């Protein structure tokens, strides 16, 4: 019985002598931290650019959806439908002179969704108003509108007199 107890005690304490240098030392730990810092230094700016692009893409897609919905309302009814876009990229929609908040995107929404987004016209100046007739057509000439993310990514749109919105090369 004494032999069994002695084997159990020696197994608990380990029979192998401890090696010096087992595990990570301070130098190895510092090297690992430095490598993680370098990787983070490259990844964080790329992630910010990607987030900026996705936010601008979201605003661009929302504009296209709202524009298409307003056009469909003009075609299906006898309503006077219009949309006005401002230089800060916000837009407001009206139906028979009454605001349509579900199809408008305010300055506060722009600031919360895509802070720093820019928009530019191919020609002309802001604000730009689009009024649909009962067939969904717009008066005037086609309009080139470009949304720009803070990263520099552009999302160009062409708004045709037919009331269609076309995403041009490089768009979302």
In short:
The chain is α+β, with helices and mostly antiparallel strands. The chain has helices at residues 2-13, 26-76, 107-113, and strands spanning 81-85, 91-95, 98-99, 118-121, 128-132, 143-148, 154-159, 165-167.
Question: How is this structure best described in words?
Answer:
With 172 residues, this protein is of the alpha+beta class. It is built from three helices and eight strands; from the N terminus they run ααβββαβββββ. It has helices at 2-13, 26-76, 107-113, and strands at residues 81-85, 91-95, 98-99, 118-121, 128-132, 143-148, 154-159, 165-167. It has a four-stranded antiparallel sheet with strand order 3-2-1-5, covered by helices on one side. A four-stranded antiparallel sheet has the order 4-6-7-8, covered by helices on one side. A hairpin with a 5-residue loop joins β7 and β8 (165-167).
């Amino acid at each position: 019985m004494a032999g069994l107890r002695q084997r159990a005690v020696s197994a608990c304490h380990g029979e192998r002598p401890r090696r010096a240098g087992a595990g990570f030392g301070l130098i190895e730990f510092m090297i690992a931290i430095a490598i993680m810092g370098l990787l983070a230094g490259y990844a964080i700016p790329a992630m910010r650019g990607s987030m900026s692009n996705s936010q601008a893409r979201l605003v661009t897609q929302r504009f296209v959806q709202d524009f298409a919905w307003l056009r469909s309302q003009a075609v299906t009814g006898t309503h006077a439908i219009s949309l006005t876009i401002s230089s800060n990229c916000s837009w407001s929609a009206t139906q028979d002179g009454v605001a349509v908040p579900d199809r408008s995107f305010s300055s506060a929404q722009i600031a919360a969704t895509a802070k720093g987004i820019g928009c530019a016209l191919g020609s002309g100046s802001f604000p730009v108003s689009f009024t649909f007739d009962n067939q969904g057509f717009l008066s005037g000439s086609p309009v080139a509108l470009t949304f720009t993310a803070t990263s520099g990514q552009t999302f160009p749109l062409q708004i045709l007199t037919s009331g269609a919105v076309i995403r041009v090369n490089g768009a979302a």
